[in-house]
Amino acid sequence: MIELYYWPTPNGHKITLFLEEAGLDYAIHPVDIGKGQQFDPEFLKFSPNNRMPAIIDRAPADGGEPISVFESGAILLYLANKTGRFFGPDQRTKIEQSQWLMWQMGGLGPMAGQNGHFNVYAPEKIDYAINRYVNETNRLYGVLNKRFEGRDYIAGDYSIADMACYPWIVPHEAHKQDLHDFPALKAWFERIAARPATIRAYDKGGEVRSYSALMTEEERKILFGQRADSKA
Which residues form the GST C-terminal domain (predicted)? Predict the structure, then answer.
C-alpha cells in the first residue's frame, strides 16, 4: 500500500499519474495547503520542506520498515525503481529520461509556477514579473516542442519524464500560452490527456477538491507569506 499525501496541484498530479498507470494500490490523504495542513507536525516528520506530495510505502521492495519519500521527482524515481516501469529500459534511456525529469524540476515547474503566481494569484499586477515569466514559460514550451518533433514521448516510451511535464502544461491558458503555437507539443499533450490513467488521475483530483482560483486572504498568507520563522 502506498499512502499518498496529496493536493491536486501539478506536482500532486504527477504522482497520481504514475500510480494509476502502474495500477498500484494506494490511498490518498488530502493535504489542504490552503488551510496550512502541510505544516502539521506529523506531516513534517516525513516531508520536512512542508510541501506535498509525499508518500509512505508500507510494503517496500526490501521487505523492511516503511519508506517515506518527499519531493515529486524523487517520488517518481522511487516508484519507477520499485515497479521497474516507466523508466528505462536501458541505462542510456534512463539517463535521457532523468535529464528531462530534472529539466522539469529545475525549469518548467518553477518558471510556470511563478508565471501562474503573478498572472493569477498576485494581489497586484506587476508587468515586469508577468512578462518575465510568461516569456520564460514560452521559451520552455519551445524547448519541448522541438523535442517532440519526430517522437511521441520525451525519451523512448511514455515515462516519468512525461508524467512530470504534463501537469505543468495543463494550465497553459492561465500561463498565457497558446498550444497552437507549438504543434508537436500540442499533439503530445493531447496524446497523454486521452490516456485512461490520466483521466482517472485527474478525476481523483476532482474528488479531493473543486478547483478555484479564488483565494481568501488567510489562504494567500499561508501559501505565499511563509518565512523560516513563520508559524502555521
Answer: 90-214
